[in-house]
Structure formats: C-alpha cells, structure tokens
C-alpha cells in the first residue's frame, strides 16, 4: 500500500509521515523526494541543466516508490504534485487500488510563517506551489495541519485505511 501525502512545501508532510510510521501496525517506509534531492551532488548547473536534473530526480523517485510497493512494502510518500506531469507519471506507475491519496492542507499565511521559521527553503516556494499542488482536486482523505497536530492527522489517516473507498482517488483519476 502507498499512503501518498500531497501538499506544499512546509505543509507538515514530513512531520505527519513520521507520526504515521509510529502509529501504523505493519512495517512502513517513509520515502521523501527531499531525501532523493539530498542524495545528489551539488555541482554548478545552469538553470536548464538544473531543470533537467530535477525532472530526472522526480522520475527516479516515482520509480523507486513503485519498486518498493511492487516488492510488497508499505510506503508513506511525501510529495508535492505542483506539476501535472508528476501526477500523470505516478498514475502510470502505481497500482491505483493500492494508493491512498491524502491532501495535506495548510493556509498560505501559516505556510509562509513556517517557511520563514525553517530557513532552509527558497523564499516564496510554498506560495508558488499553493494554487497548483491541489489543482487535481480529488482525494481519499484530507487533513489541515494548521488545525490538527501531525499526530492527530496520523490517527485520522490510520483510522481511514480500513475503510478506503472504491474506487480510490487514483482509480478515479486514472479512469478519467
């Protein structure tokens, strides 16, 4: 199974993923695109080279997640669907019945406050992603990290898993 957390930068996905690992019964793996980006060396790249490199990183990340799930592992994915091709790539790769798509929401002022407090993100990143990350509009379950703690959101998702809808959000989007 894949629990797919989608939200902007600084929305609380990584904190939520950590709490999910603590409250879920079976073994689960947290796979974050940030971890994949951190594995990359940092040579000087032109903007065009960086764009190509980032695209290959995202595609590789998607294939790594698909491989872990295909091998029978449960995966919590920490993702940002701010570009339509990312969603389409995942829809092509993942078994849609096995994906629980979670919308991780947070109001923009709180995202901006968190981004400033973190200090490790480009200024305005969450604002640039805000209108695009949830544009597909379909989720199995949603949470607002400005209203609920990561642990409360993890319990909401854990309690939802045995009652997954049919068809799932991924099944509906793949069909449409």
UniProtKB/TrEMBL annotation:
Kindly give the Gene3D superfamilies that the UniProt entry links to this protein: P-loop containing nucleotide triphosphate hydrolases
Keywords noted in UniProt: Transferase
E.C. designation(s): 2.7.1.-
Q: Recall the GO molecular function terms of this protein's record.
A: transferase activity
The molecule here is called Chloramphenicol 3-O phosphotransferase
Q: What is the originating organism of this protein?
A: Streptomyces clavifer
């Amino acid at each position: 199974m894949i629990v797919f957390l989608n939200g902007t930068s600084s929305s609380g996905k990584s904190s939520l993923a950590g709490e999910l690992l603590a409250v879920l019964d079976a073994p689960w793996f947290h796979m974050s695109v940030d971890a994949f980006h951190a594995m990359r060396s940092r040579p000087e790249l032109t903007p065009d080279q960086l764009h190509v490199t980032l695209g290959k990183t995202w595609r590789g990340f998607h294939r790594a997640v698909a491989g872990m799930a295909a091998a029978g592992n449960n995966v919590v994915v920490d993702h940002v669907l701010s570009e339509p091709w990312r969603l389409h790539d995942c829809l092509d790769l993942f078994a849609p019945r096995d994906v629980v798509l979670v919308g991780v929401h947070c109001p923009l002022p709180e995202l901006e406050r968190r981004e400033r407090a973190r200090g490790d993100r480009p200024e305005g990143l969450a604002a640039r992603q805000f209108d695009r990350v949830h544009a597909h509009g379909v989720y199995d379950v949603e949470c607002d990290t400005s209203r609920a703690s990561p642990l409360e959101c993890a319990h909401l998702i854990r309690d939802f898993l045995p009652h997954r809808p049919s068809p799932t959000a991924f099944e509906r989007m793949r069909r449409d």
